[in-house]
Design goal:
Elements (H helix, E strand, L loop, with lengths): L8 E3 L15 H12 L3 E3 L7 E7 L5 H13 L4 E5 L5 H13 L2 E4 L6 H11 L4 E5 L14 H9 L3 E7 L4 E9 L4 H11 L22
Parallel strand pairs: 2-8, 3-6, 3-7, 4-5, 4-6
Antiparallel strand pairs: 1-8, 7-8
Helix pairs in contact: 1-2, 4-5
Length: about 220
């Protein structure tokens, strides 16, 4: 598939507004927003720039991140998909919990698939008219010296922007700081992403990974 080469660029308002479900929002959206507020969280969000894209959520330092992330997706009322490791959807655990996770937007990644992670997800996204996919580029709660590069190659392969989402536990704030249209210079693109994430810290700040790409796609 020949796609137009994206031009590098960052879309980020100076101040991302606080978000509340609009009048007429469904019960799930209203309940999820109420739950976030009950635990002291606020959400900043200003919309999506198009029908398809990849959202990277950072930092991932605690199991609580999952629940904050799900509540955020439900609050927005958008059919955002998210990527989970294969073990969440297979075996005895997958039998018990997998259907629920799928109903919440979860999609497994099978690392031994012939096309690899990027090929699987690109095919899925290209087949749908609207598809935003959220994932953790760290892939673990432990500190790493890099981000896994699958999200980068996925966004490049379908010509989609990267939404930069953050979880900020000191401020009790979750949001989308902005969007980066990748230009192909990985170091420059990652610097743009890192700038949008400055000052945001997870529940365990010492576990936050270095914002740079791992050399190989995975």
């Amino acid at each position: 598939m020949n796609l137009p080469e994206p031009a590098a660029g960052v879309t980020a308002p100076d101040v991302v507004p606080l978000y509340s479900p609009p009048p007429g929002a469904g019960w799930k959206s209203r309940c999820a927003h109420a739950a976030l507020r009950a635990f002291g969280w606020r959400l900043r969000y200003a919309g999506l720039p198009g029908p398809k894209g990849v959202i990277v959520a950072y930092p991932h330092t605690s199991n609580w991140d999952f629940f904050v992330g799900i509540a955020t997706i439900w609050t927005l009322g958008l059919p955002i998909r998210w990527v989970g490791k294969e073990s969440l959807f297979t075996g005895w655990f997958g039998t018990l919990v997998g259907p629920l996770l799928r109903s919440w937007g979860g999609r497994p990644v099978f690392r031994d698939h012939p096309t690899g992670m990027v090929g699987q997800l690109a095919a899925h996204m290209n087949a749908e008219p609207w598809c935003w996919l959220a994932l953790s580029p760290e892939g673990t709660r432990a500190r790493l010296d890099y981000w896994r590069s699958g999200f980068y190659h996925l966004a490049r392969s379908i010509g989609a922007p990267v939404g930069v989402a953050y979880l900020d536990y000191p401020r009790r704030e979750v949001g989308v700081a902005g969007f980066v249209k990748l230009g192909g210079d990985a170091e420059a693109d990652m610097r743009a992403i890192a700038r949008l994430l400055e000052g945001h810290h997870g529940l365990h700040p010492q576990r936050g990974s270095t914002i740079r790409l791992r050399e190989s796609a995975d």
